[in-house]
């Protein structure tokens, strides 16, 4: 059962930036890449680092702890030491709300 959940408001995340969003027990990273929103797991798959504190360049987020790289739109692990992809969640905008479909 998947539901669309409001995770932020448009304007909460500046363009080409990322914020952390907590939804229940879940920690997400919400990205605004040139005006398109992407939601991924907020925690690195390598160790317990918060991706929203990482360094975003174009569509790649660099983990703040050991500099592993993930491709934001797909969640693919693209740079060592990370080898496991991060989870990604569909996002849509409805009025002023940013919604994610969370499992
Ligand atoms: Fe992210 Fe190690 S915790 S690369």
Map the helices and strands:
Blueprint lengths: L2 E7 L7 E7 L2 E8 L2 E6 L13 E3 L2 E3 L6 E3 L5 E3 L8 E2 L1 E4 L2 E6 L1
The site of FE2/S2 (inorganic) cluster has 10 residues, from loops.
Please explain how this structure is put together:
The chain is mostly beta strands and 103 residues long. The protein is 0% helix and 50% strand. The strands form three sheets. A four-stranded antiparallel sheet has the order 2-3-4-9, with no helix packed on it. A four-stranded antiparallel sheet has the order 5-6-7-8, with no helix packed on it. The mean pLDDT is 96. It has one domain (3-102): Rieske Iron-sulfur Protein (3-layer Sandwich). It contains no helices and eleven strands. The protein is globular and about 40 Å long. β7 and β8 (77-79) form a beta hairpin. The structure holds FE2/S2 (inorganic) cluster. The site of FE2/S2 (inorganic) cluster (FES) has 10 residues, from loops. FE2/S2 (inorganic) cluster (FES) binds at residues 44, 46-47, 49, 63, 65-66, 68, 81-82.
